[in-house]
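Risk register update: the risk that structure generation would not scale has been downgraded. Supporting records follow, first protein first.
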Amino acid sequence: MKTMRKRVGLLLMSLALALFAGGVWGSATAEAKSDNNVILDGIYMGEIDLSGMTADEAKAAVNAFVEQLKLKNITFGAVDGHYVAITVADLGVSWVNQNDIDAAVSLGKTGNIVKRYKVVEDLKHGKKVYDLQLAFDPAVLRAFLEEQCTEYDVEAVNASLTLTDGVFAVTEGQSGQRVNIDASLDRTIEFLTNEWNYQDASIDLVIDVEAPKGDAEELAQVKDVLGTFTTSYSSSGSARSANVENGCRLINGTLLYPGEEFSTYNTIKPFTKENGYYPAGSYLNGKVVDSIGGGICQVSTTLYNAVLLSELEVVERNNHSMIVSYVEPSMDAAISESAGKDFRFVNNYEHPIYIEGHTEGKKITFTIYGVETRDPGHKVYYKSEVLSTTNPDHEEIIADGGQGIGYINVQSAHIGQKAQLWRVVEENGVEVSREVINSSSYQASPRTATVGVNTSNPEYASRIQAAIASGSIDNCKAEAAAIKAEMAAASQQQAEQEAYNQALLQQQQQAMEQLAAQ
């Protein structure tokens, strides 16, 4: 045992002498590089030689290299042969393994003398290379792909139908192409972190081909009437009529494939003059007020009833705040941008459906075509049931200082109701089911008058205020009419007096001119 220990000690001494004699630490240069703060020769990070550098110098060298990398261009291949280029700097690059610099400084400086000797000897025969590890911000990359690389995406165009003079015509669809963001993001990160050679480079993005829906054979089957419904707007003025006709036009020709959802609001918006709408009466806070697109709810209501008869799946339906006159209670479907009301439904059939809308003779009709799969003996109809009625118990009079004396505008009362709609199904003339499909609550609104009170005549002001104080709209109407007639008579009398005075003045001027001539 003692002999063995003696041999080991002699071996260690020999190694130390060999190292010393070989000049590993003997020369002045070698002595400087043995300093614990300096990286040994032959140590690299990626392509960067770190030999003889301190940790700060090495980090500065790698940072400078990364800054140069940021100037490189990466070109992305998008849809249809289009390319989008960006610098590496704009891809959110960062150097993430800076701790390996500390490991490089420590290499060959720790452990026993044998271990350190082995490191030095290995470096004589080959490099020690630490990988340069870069990271790219996925959020920045995703934003770039979504905002710039999808610019050339081509939407699939589904096969479509048009109905002209009762004849359907099919237009074939076109395939679409779009960048697959998730797959392209993964491909980009994999390339930049594991394959990139630090030069300008190109990456082909992952492109998905989207087949169009429908074809001539499928759409040729769409010819059966699933449901149709008509309402009248004969009492509407020109502005409201124009709104109804415009909304119908915007919906006409809609083709829905199986599973697709239709939003009435999204189809007919925005409610602007540029989109064909005019100010007309609509409900707001229990009153009838003019708003752009007033009357559009008759469009959604007519469509709602056609959808019910077609037995499509209703997703959203809202009743009006007050009763409407063109359908029975609970058969209406309100649209309101401010209140977030929409009428939405889904094509729950296995075949496409086509919506035809047309107006004629101040009547609006929606007809829904599809492939009839219901039994010929199947019949569905809907029955409105009023559950309760509330009559207004007062009248409301509003004094309006912005309107002149004699002005009065009266809005009729609205009866409040609670109602529900029954869906009744018959098979071969026998009722097989009856269910409530919606419930509605319509608020009561009193008869309301807005009365003008702006006048400089104390007598008129007193009289109209007395009429308002009576609480009777009829009294206000009578007094406003009387005042208006008196003002008209006074205005006429004044006009006649002014005309008489003017004629008299002219006669006097003529007489003076004749005397002057004599």
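Supporting record for the second protein:
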Amino acid sequence: MFQKYDVIVVGAGHAGCEAAVAAANMGSKVLLVTMNMQTIAQMSCNPAMGGVAKGQIVREVDAMGGYSGIVTDHTMIQFRMLNLSKGPAMWSPRAQSDRMLFAHKWRMMLEQNQNIDFWQEMVGSLIVKNGVVKGIRTSMGIEIEGRSVVLTNGTFLNGIIHIGEKQFGGGRAGEKAATGITEQLIELGFEAGRMKTGTPPRVDGRSLDYNLMEVQDGDENPSRFSYTETPKLQNQIPCHITYTNDKVHDILRTGFEQSPMFTGRIQGRGPRYCPSIEDKIDRFADKERHQLFVEPEGRETCEIYINGFSSSLPEDVQYKALVQIPGFKNVKMFRPGYAIEYDYFPPTQLHVTLETRLVKNLFFAGQINGTTGYEEAACQGLIAGVNAHLAIFEKDPLVLSRSEGYIGVLIDDLVNKGTDEPYRMFTSRAEYRILLRQDNADLRLTPLMHKLGMKNLDDRLSRVQEKKQNMSIIRKYFSETGVSPDLMNAYLLSVGSAPMNQQIKLASVLSRPQVSMKGMLEALPELAAYLNQFDQETIELAEIDMKYEGYIVKEQELAEKMIRLEEVRLMEDFNYHGISSLSFEAREKLTKLRPRTIGQASRISGVTPSDISILLVHAGR
């Protein structure tokens, strides 16, 4: 009935979908197994992609041949570039998506890939022989052979949903939990833990009074996530902003005695940076109000997502509090918010390839590794899918360094530091932010993936090469072309910059903090005419490269120093306990985590600089 597959992906959320297409586009024959074919790529929480640091991840996924950016561009209803008032390292794209169209588009793209087959059923266990995964066993007892397996189970492993004092098994509202895999993995020697996440109530947009809320429109000239020619967004739909108040807080407090979070029924830790509304008013009791984002679920539905009102309080308490929010007096609730508790496996049990240390050719990706967010899940799925393919064909793995991508930062953090709360990406986690901007992901990563053999990247590589060439032409023009004071001084004075006394190069003018390319183009019609031959994206890239050249060079030098440490390999069977000069904690951590390089060892919590110096001596450096 079933052939032997190269890669079996268990779970069809954001991690599973990206894992399946990554392995398939590398050339593997893939089976994607899901408990429900109707919920492939479901946006379980908010109907949005991107945001601070998360938007950079989506662009990286797209640059590497993943589909999340393409799907988002085809289905978004609003686009905003966040943090434009800050430097370009902080600019982060975010899109409001049509939830139903998003899942539909993903499924259509999956089905168009001839290397992907589907099976709808719960996976009860793995087939493992002599420490190597050999396939899966379904709940009906069907055995399917696979040369590698990627687990992307999301919140489904022994999931329990909490609403007030009520609790019931489930991996998501209306869907049953998955059982069996956790117990087997523990028997195999894995360590498991519990985490929690939550979601807000969904309400009827027809029952809201938007006149009492602030309007939040999208960008006037919306951009996109994908580096391909996806459709330009038309007819954006606004979101709205409203706020809680003292009445709302007082009503919510009446339900604290029934809250599973405060009564101890929930043992797992929730995301610190996305707390429930009851957690907010408990932890920040001095705050008079909390901001809420009223987000439409799509173009053709009246369902509304209340971002910022995640709750597991009793449904009647949630409703009584909602009606006290401005604009919500006549609100009709579709379903209450809830908390969900689920199993995860501390990611220190993984190699940086996302392959498990205990079972060969078994990979974990997404919330099973303790992360939160569609974007964090998607990028892990892509890396796991690629490495599952490379492993079975005995090729060198794909490992991104911290200076190559936010994806590299995320995986490095997980594997070397672990996490005991849902991990979320922030720009502050990346030490090379100016190198890892959202605008240059294709320049950084597309050539790498093309070289690895990812299909359908020929056109993308040509675009990258053309973009690099045009950036070089623009830079050369700016470094060689002078401009006289009489043409520039009026503009310079208007932006508070010192006037010029003599002719200087365009590059020197642009390097001034107050000066922008846009302002220069308005002041210099000849320059605007020259740059008309280039697309706007290339011009912006060239501007950033010229304007922040000093910072970029400095970060590149720091990254190269770290790369030299990454080149010093450590043997898999290195006897750390035999080096008495290492601290006891370092010996324990290094023995447990088995870093591949000195660079990786340097980022393990508890390993000191002096420990690294000792390792360098023993490594012959």
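The longest helix spans residues 458-480. On this basis the risk owner (M.S.) recommends closing the item.
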